[in-house]
Every structure is written in structure tokens, then in C-alpha cells.
Amino acid sequence: MKFKFFILGLLFWATCQLQAQDCSNFCVWPGDVNNNGIANHYDILPLGLAQGATGPFRSDENVDWSEKEAADWSDSFPVNGATYKHADSNGDGFVDEFDIFPIGDNFGEINDLYTGASEGNNIEGPDLTATLDMTTYTDGQTITVTISLGSEDNPVSGLTGLAFSLDIDTTYIQQVIEPITWNLGFIGPASTVMTFDKWEPGISDRIHFAFAKTDGSTIEGFGELLTVELIVIDDLSLRFAEPQDYQIQILDVLGIDMDETDLQITSRGDEATLLTTTSVKEINWNKEWIIAPNPVENILTISHPNEKLNHVEVVDFLGKVWYSEPYSSSDIPFGNIPPGMYVILIHTSNQIYSKTLFKRPF
Ligand SMILES: [Ca+2]
Ligand SMILES: [Ca+2]
After folding, report:
1. Ligand 2 centroid, distance to 94 Cα (angstroms)
2. HEC states along 170-219?
3. CA of 203 to the centre of ligand 2 (A)
4. For 22, 67, 293, 334, which has the most beta carbons within 10 A of its beta carbon?
5. Domains of the chain listed by start with CATH number
6. DSSP annotation string for 139-159
7. Closest ligand to the CA of 52
8. 214-228 pLDDT tens trace
9. Is the pTM of this model over 0.85?
10. What is the pLDDT of residues 188-204, one digit of tens each?
11. Strand 181-182 to strand 193-199: parallel, antiparallel, or no bridges (unpaired)?
């Protein structure tokens, strides 16, 4: 009799172990679409591929980060092998745009399946480029980063989704302006693409990005993906005596095609110099500089015989930027700027020059 209980007990224990093991393979963790043990931006890529799929709904439609029993779906991802039930993050039996939210809610959460391996493949191909809008910045200034994909000579082809991270170096950056502006002209229209970005201030130096086509179409050619605005720390000059090199990098890129095969993409970063306010030089009387007329009406002329001018900004005394463009012509349009006092900031590669002037009333 005792022996019989022992056998029954053993059977019960074995069944429990099996079930626990089963769950690690068959349970869904909301947001971990590729079932690799972490919810993050790479899960957007398979989520795009599975859009429109249907299957059994879960008995537990909560989306907190814990294992949820779920019946298998008939379709599975071609390379990863996980069934489409993992794409149904919210467990309602449909894979649609709402399944993106558990990825953001559970971002960075891990379970036992997680190995810590980087999910980017970083293989050479068309460029994914981050470009800064100026070569010099100073305390509290806005840095506009443009991220573009492909070029006329080396376009992308057959892309259905892309995930990557931007390292912004928070030693020098105090804020990321949100929401981030995606350019859906290139990867859209909006009804055919899901976009995702995540910045976790204080946790990481990286902003994570992903997008995926949701209509079975692919992205061809080249263009701008998005722009991000970063604010330089406003006590830069207090913390650093010397100009600082600032670098921005794109890391851990993964692009996939319709068959979930990795596409080749090469990431390219950019750099600038962060100047302390003591290196902003006010232009007083100087016969070489032409910054005229003052007061200005419709056109301000700016030139210097020897300096290479990179960028011109017109800022009011509240810090509002009215004009910010690369220097391409000596004529700066002032017609649309209201009357008042302005500071003109002229960026060269190792200096920012400033000049105060007045816009005449209409
Ligand atoms: Ca995952
Ligand atoms: Ca769903």
C-alpha cells in the first residue's frame, strides 16, 4: 500500500515537472513575440509578419509579465519557429496593432529563456545613418538627429521591418523630446506600418526603435525614417572647462524580409563638438564680419571672408528658435520673423559667434 502511494506520488511529481517544462515552451509571455525570453523592440519585427493572423484566444488575457497558458496556433514564424500565438500579446485571438502595447508595457522584462545575446546582426549592407544638424552645440541647445536608411547608390530592398538602438550619451544630453517624429512618407502610409520607440531615462543611454510593415508589403529605396530632438545639458559650461567631443551611434541593427531572413544593413553615426559658453564669441565691431542691415527687414546678409560658416540660428530672448538652417547662402530670410530683438548664432567648426540685432516693425 505504502509503495502504491509512493508510485502515485512520483507520477504526480513527474506530471507537475512536465507541465512546468511544457509551460516554458508553450506558454506565452505577453510582449515576447519571438519567444526568446525578453520583450523588446526586436519583437516588433515578427509582430509585423503575423499581422491579420487568428487563432485560439487565451483564457487569461492579462498582459502582465508572467507565463500564460495558450493553445498553439497553426502558423509559425519561418526562421524563429515560434507559433503565431506569441504574436497575440493581448491574448484575444487576433494579431493586430493592439498587440504592440504589451511590448512597451513589459519592455526589458526577461524570463528563463533569455540568454543575454544581442539580437542585432550588424552585417554590412545599405546604410542606416544618424546625422546631426550642426557641427557645434552649446549649453541647453537642441540637437536634431535625422535617421535615414539607404541611399540612391545603395537602396534597401525587400525590407519588412527594422529594429535598432541609438546611443545618445547621457553625459551630455539631459532630455529627449517626445513624441519622436517618424517620417511615414518613406515607410508608410500610416495604415501599413507600425512604429515603436522607447527611451528609458536614467536606465540606459539608448533610445530603441523599430518599425514593421503590417500589410505584407516591403520597403524599397531610400529616405528619412525619423528625427529625434535632444537637449544638451544646460550646465555643460559648469561641468566641463574644455570643448567636448560628442558622438552619436546606431547599435544592434536588425532588418528582416518577408521570410524573416536577416537583411544586411550598415550603421553610421555622426559627431559634433560641444562648446562651453565661454567659447561663444560676441561679434562687436569687426570689419571682416558682414551681418547687416541692423535693424533688419526682410533679408539679413551674413558673410565672412575667411571663416567657414556651417549653420545659422535666429533665437529670441526667451530661447525660442525662429530660424535654424545650414549656411548655404549669405541671405538669411527674416520676412516671417516678428519684430523684436534677436540673437544671431553663427556656427563654425570650432566656434559659435553671436550678434544681437533688431527686427524693424512692419
Ligand atoms: Ca523577444
Ligand atoms: Ca491580439
Report:
1. 4
2. CCCEEEECCCCEECHHHHCCHHHEEEEEEECCCCCCEEEEEEEECCCCCE
3. 29
4. 334
5. 2-105 (no CATH), 127-278 (2.60.40.680), 283-359 (2.60.40.3080)
6. TTPEEEEEEEE--SSS-EEEE
7. 2
8. 999 999 999 999 999
9. no
10. 999 999 999 999 998 99
11. unpaired
